[in-house]
Amino acid sequence: MNRTLSALVLAAALSAPGATMAAEKTVTLAVDNMYCSACPHTVKQSLAKVAGVKTAAVSYEKKTATVTYDDQKTTVAALTQATTQAGYPSHPIN
């Protein structure tokens, strides 16, 4: 009985209006100033330091970074700020 009650309370809490669930999102950023094959490592490291980033894949050939992140912990603005501070300004690709 206690398990059933606990399960019902948990289900009610999760489905209550206003309950926010973290959403995993992915954004592709166009990254400027990548001129050598070592640059993607620096961009990836700068993104990895941002709280909420799950993965970051950086392409030197395409001059992009594809980032998967928790939208409850970070924003696209924080991601672009991190790359910019590392010397690689970026912006989301529409």
CATH class: Alpha Beta
Approximate shape:
globular
Distance between the termini: 52 Å
Number of domains: 1
* Strand line-up of the largest beta sheet: 2-3-1-4
Query: The CATH topology, please?
Result: Alpha-Beta Plaits
Counting DSSP H or I runs of 4 or more residues, the number of helices is 3
Tell me about the largest β-sheet: 4 strands, antiparallel
Strand content: 25-35%
Kindly summarize this structure in a few lines.
With 94 residues, the protein is of the alpha+beta class. Helix content is 36%, strand content 27%.
Structure write-up:
The chain is an alpha+beta fold and 94 residues long. It has a single domain (22-92), classed as Alpha-Beta Plaits (2-Layer Sandwich), CATH 3.30.70. Helices cover 36% and strands 27% of the residues. It is built from 3 helices and 4 strands. The protein has helices at 2-15, 39-48, 76-85; strands at 24-31, 53-59, 64-70, 90-92. It has a 4-stranded antiparallel sheet with strand order 2-3-1-4. Helix 2 crosses helix 3. The protein starts with a helix and ends with a strand. Mean pLDDT is 86; it is low at 4-10.
Quick tags:
94 residues; 4-stranded antiparallel sheet; single chain; alpha+beta; 4 strands; Alpha-Beta Plaits
